[in-house]
Amino acid sequence: MKTTFCQGTSSSAPGTAHTRSRSNVILPALLALAGTLAATQTARADSYAFSVSGSGITASGTLTVAPTATAGTDVITGISGVFSDTNASANFSGAITGLQPTVAPSGPPPFPAPAFTEAGFSYDNLFYADGNSPLVCPPDTPGGPPGYPFSGGVLDIYGIAFNIAGGYTANLWSNGVVPGVGLQYELSDSLGATKLEPDNEGQALTVSVNTSPVPEPGSLLLLGTGLPGLLVALTRKGKARFTRSNA
């Protein structure tokens, strides 16, 4: 659809009540800490694991992103991983070596495509962590490029363009939530200016895309050291309270 333009139990045993009370304190505290750490990690995540599959194409790796001036919009600053296209028209695989260069739009959409690959595909390298990419193509204008009416996904209709070893380029984008179809992504690859994956529009093949935040090492360390520490502190406090009550 993209165009090259817009593309508990009870007990009476001595001390049980104190033990149960202590457990009622420890468990919520542990859960609260874990929840806080998880929320902090998600909010601060700047790396995402990604996978692409479908139509003979597979890819996986890591995206690094940075915030733009537009709320909810990140720009992809790096990519690594592996890519494979087993279709007869392409039949290649290799390491993902980096991004096609572009400059992130300076303001919110709509905006024209900021860059094009050698094969003529538009891209902006933007990422939407909430999965709700906006309408980015400008509305139709007489004599101008066509707009695009659908939105949604971690990428927009312009999408991301990245390089693969051997001189190949792939362009991956979201067609948005298409009526009667749902959220749809497409991918096209090329060797220089030669498109390798035609569809009924001569452009791309349908694929599925999955992304997930990569935990920050600092958050994992805090989670690993903080929970046992809190457990020890609460256990000591509970023991002290039990000793005083039975003195």
Explain the overall architecture:
With 247 residues, the protein is α+β, with helices and mostly antiparallel strands. The protein folds into 2 domains: 43-213, no CATH class; 218-247. The protein is built from 2 helices and 12 strands, in the order H-E-E-E-E-E-E-E-E-E-E-E-E-H. The strands form 2 sheets. The chain has an 8-stranded antiparallel β-barrel with strand order 1-2-3-4-8-9-10-12. A two-stranded antiparallel ribbon has the order 5-6.
Q: How far apart are the first and last residues' alpha carbons, in Å?
A: 77 Å
Instruction: State which percent range the strand residues make up.
Output: 25-35%
- Name the poorly predicted regions: 8-23, 37-44
Number of helical elements: 2
Number of strand elements: 12
Main beta sheet, described? 8 strands, antiparallel, barrel
Question: Numbering strands along the chain, what is their spatial order in the largest sheet?
Answer: 1-2-3-4-8-9-10-12
Mean pLDDT: 80
Report helical residue fraction. 10-25%
Give me the Rg, rounded: 25 Å
Structural class: alpha+beta
Q: Kindly give the count of domains.
A: 2
N-to-C order of helices and strands = HEEEEEEEEEEEEH
Envelope shape = globular
Summarize the structure.
The chain has 247 residues and is of the alpha+beta class.
Keyphrases for this structure?
247 residues, alpha+beta, 8-stranded antiparallel β-barrel, 12 strands, globular
Set down the secondary structure blueprint:
Elements: H1 16-44, E1 47-54, E2 57-67, E3 74-85, E4 92-99, E5 115-116, E6 122-123, E7 126-127, E8 160-164, E9 168-178, E10 182-191, E11 194-195, E12 205-213, H2 217-245
Antiparallel strand pairs: 1-2, 1-12, 2-3, 3-4, 3-7, 4-8, 5-6, 8-9, 9-10, 10-11, 10-12
